[in-house]
Write a structure and sequence with these properties.
The protein has 202 residues and is of the alpha/beta class. It contains seven helices and eight strands, in the order βαβαββαβαβαβαβα. It folds into two domains: 95 residues, Periplasmic binding protein-like II (D-Maltodextrin-Binding Protein, domain 2), CATH 3.40.190; 100 residues, D-Maltodextrin-Binding Protein, domain 2.
Length: 202
C-alpha cells in the first residue's frame, strides 16, 4: 500500500462507540485517521471551525453548514449487578427512585431520557457517582456501586457472562447516531468513502 495516497481524516467521536462499533466500519486501507474523543456538541463546534473533518454524533444540532447521515441506532437498557433481586410486583418507578445511580454526566442525559419516555415525568434522582466513561460505569455496576443506563453494545457480553443483569427489560430506549460533516465537503473522497461504508450497514 502506498501510504502517501491515503486520505487523512480528522474525526471526532464518543470514545466507547468509536472503539466498540465504529472501527468495524472505518477499517479501510485508504484512510488515515486522527481521532478526537469528546461530547457531541463540542465536537460539532470543532467541525464547524474546521478543526475536524467529520464527527460521529449522538444528536443532531441545528448548526449552519453541517449535514447529517444516520449511522445506526443504539439501544439503552437499565443495568444492575448480577446479585440484585427485584420483585416482579414492585412498582418500577418507585424502586428505581430508591436506587443509587451512576451517570455519565451531572445532567443524567440518558437516564432522564429513558425516565421521560417510560414514566412521563422528570427523574427526581441524583447521581451517586459520575463516571464519564461507559466502560467505567459498567465495571462500577458489576461491583455493586449502583445501577445505570447503558447501550447494549457495551453491556451485552457482561450480561451474557452473568457479570451483571438487565433490570426491567421493557424499560429501554433507542438513540440514533449520525455521521456529521460540512455540507461543502459532501463530495470529498474521504466523506464519500465513509458514507458508503455506513450505507452497507442497512
Amino acid at each position: 500500500m502506498n501510504r502517501t495516497k491515503c486520505a487523512h481524516v480528522r474525526i471526532g467521536a464518543p470514545a466507547e462507540f468509536f472503539s466498540c462499533r465504529a472501527l468495524d466500519v472505518l477499517d479501510t486501507e485508504n484512510m488515515r485517521y486522527e481521532v478526537t474523543f469528546g461530547l457531541t456538541r463540542e465536537l460539532l463546534e470543532q467541525l464547524q471551525k474546521r478543526d475536524l473533518d467529520c464527527v460521529i454524533a449522538t444528536k443532531q444540532y441545528d448548526i449552519p453548514g453541517i449535514q447529517y447521515t444516520t449511522w445506526e441506532s443504539e439501544t439503552f437498557v437499565i443495568v444492575g449487578a448480577a446479585h440484585m433481586n427485584v420483585s416482579l410486583d414492585v412498582c418500577e418507578q418507585t424502586w428505581l427512585e430508591q436506587q443509587r445511580w451512576i451517570s455519565y454526566g451531572r445532567e443524567l442525559p440518558i437516564i432522564r431520557r429513558i425516565w421521560k419516555q417510560h414514566f412521563h415525568t422528570r427523574a427526581v434522582i441524583e447521581a451517586a457517582h459520575i463516571i464519564p466513561d461507559l466502560r467505567g460505569i459498567l465495571k462500577a455496576v458489576e461491583l455493586g456501586m449502583g445501577i445505570s443506563v447503558l447501550p447494549t453494545y457495551i453491556a451485552k457480553e457482561w450480561i451474557e457472562a452473568g457479570r451483571c443483569q438487565v433490570l426491567f427489560p421493557h424499560v429501554s430506549c433507542t438513540n440514533a447516531l449520525y455521521f456529521a460533516y460540512r455540507e461543502e465537503d459532501s463530495e470529498v473522497f474521504a466523506i464519500q468513502n465513509i458514507k458508503k461504508s455506513i450505507a452497507k450497514l442497512s
